[in-house]
């Protein structure tokens, strides 16, 4: 009889109902037994009904829980997507003061606005937001350190239009990146347009800026995609500019040891896209030319007497978005530290 004690499991209830039915068939005239069986039968049916009710309530609770979980996940996904979308268009200015007693005193506070890795991106109609922020940076000169176009979706008009409007703010200097090398025919068209409008394209050469009789050198070297003999060309350029404090424009930060070996004072680079996805206290996760956890992804670095600025850049290419990595205009402010 221990088998019959409550609580009933579904298996026990079904077994009891079958057993009661058989007993009623075997003892149809035993009223006392029939009364006991009837009560037991009612208890079994009630237990089964209660079980069904409990199962329905449990299903409702589980359904409600699933809805809450899915709604929460959907909300999180939407919030993260909006945040990432905002972060890919929320321009910012990053000001970096470069202190070096080799900087001529007349260039104290000289402001160099750096545009890098635009990749044909648009910030506002005709890049009006980018140009407005560039104006707010109050540049003495504007330098573009490569990947103005994107080899996968090249639009020469967007790039040329931006440079033409940037020239209204300050003189513009340009060096190539790997995407110009990857879209060579279209870059030739862009190069002609930039030259005709007055952009200074630096290809293993330099320009001298003079203030109060003192000189600052702006030098540039092409991306290695154009320049198989990069190292020897860099050496020649550094020898030619050795009598001046030189700001070298180059696309690739991973070549910092070459810049150091040939005595570059200040190098402005891009290419790394800030590591694309930035993790707090760690930095970027991946950069072209450096792989996972790049050493040079954003900000100011120093190797010996060579200082190097790496811009996080503005646009995206094969990887279509940034995470925790806002597009930036870098402003290098020169100071002799006196």
Describe this entry's structure for a reader.
This protein has two domains: 82 residues; 243 residues, 4-Layer Sandwich (Purple Acid Phosphatase, chain A, domain 2), CATH 3.60.21.10. The chain is α/β, with parallel strands linked by helices and 338 residues long. Helix content is 38%, strand content 22%. Helix 1 packs antiparallel against helix 2 and helix 4 runs parallel beside helix 6. It is built from eight helices and 16 strands.
Low-confidence stretches: 1-6
Number of discrete helical segments:
8
Proportion in β-strands: 15-25%
Helical/strand content category? alpha/beta
What is the assigned CATH homologous superfamily of the largest domain? Metallo-dependent phosphatases
**In what order do the strands lie side by side in the largest sheet?**
1-16-2-3-4-5
Please give the CATH architecture of the largest domain. 4-Layer Sandwich
User: End-to-end distance, in Å?
Assistant: 100 Å
Query: Please, what is the average pLDDT?
Result: 90
What is the count of distinct domains? Answer: 2
> Helicity, in percent?
25-40%
What is the number of beta strands? 16
How would you sum up the global shape? Answer: elongated
Computed CA radius of gyration, to the nearest angstrom: 36 Å
Task: Note the main sheet.
Answer: 6 strands, mixed
CATH topology of the largest domain: Purple Acid Phosphatase, chain A, domain 2
Order of helices and strands: HHEEHEHEHHEEEHEHEEEEEEEE
- What's the CATH class of the largest domain, please? Alpha Beta
């Amino acid at each position: 009889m221990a088998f019959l004690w409550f609580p009933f499991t579904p298996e026990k209830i079904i077994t009891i109902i079958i057993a009661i039915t058989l007993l009623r068939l075997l003892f149809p005239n035993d009223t006392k037994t029939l009364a006991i069986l009837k009560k037991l039968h009612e208890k079994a049916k009630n237990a089964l009904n209660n079980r069904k009710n409990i199962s329905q309530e449990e299903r409702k609770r589980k359904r409600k829980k699933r809805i809450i979980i899915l709604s929460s996940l959907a909300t999180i996904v939407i919030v993260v997507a909006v945040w990432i979308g905002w972060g890919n268009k929320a321009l910012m200015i990053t000001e970096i003061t470069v202190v070096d007693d080799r900087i001529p005193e007349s260039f104290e506070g000289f402001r160099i606005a750096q545009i890098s890795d635009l990749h044909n991106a648009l910030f506002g109609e005709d890049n009006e937001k980018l140009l407005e922020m560039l104006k707010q940076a109050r540049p003495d000169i504007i330098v573009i350190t490569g990947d103005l176009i994107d080899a996968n979706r090249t639009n020469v008009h967007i790039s040329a239009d931006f440079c033409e409007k940037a020239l209204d703010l300050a003189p513009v200097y340009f060096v190539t990146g790997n995407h110009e090398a990857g879209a060579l025919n279209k870059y030739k068209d862009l190069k002609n347009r930039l030259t005709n409008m007055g952009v200074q394209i630096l290809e293993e050469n330099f320009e001298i800026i003079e203030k109060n009789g003192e000189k600052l050198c702006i030098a540039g070297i092409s991306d290695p995609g154009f320049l198989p003999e990069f190292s020897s060309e860099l050496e020649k350029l550094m020898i030619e500019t050795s009598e001046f404090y030189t700001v070298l424009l180059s696309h690739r930060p991973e070549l910092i040891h070459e810049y150091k070996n040939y005595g570059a004072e200040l190098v402005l680079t891009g290419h790394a896209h800030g590591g694309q996805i930035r993790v707090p206290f760690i930095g970027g996760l991946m950069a072209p030319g450096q792989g996972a956890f790049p050493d040079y992804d954003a900000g100011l670095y120093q190797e010996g007497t060579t200082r190097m600025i790496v811009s996080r850049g503005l646009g995206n290419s094969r990887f279509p978005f940034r995470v925790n990595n806002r597009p930036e205009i870098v402003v290098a402010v020169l100071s002799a530290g006196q």
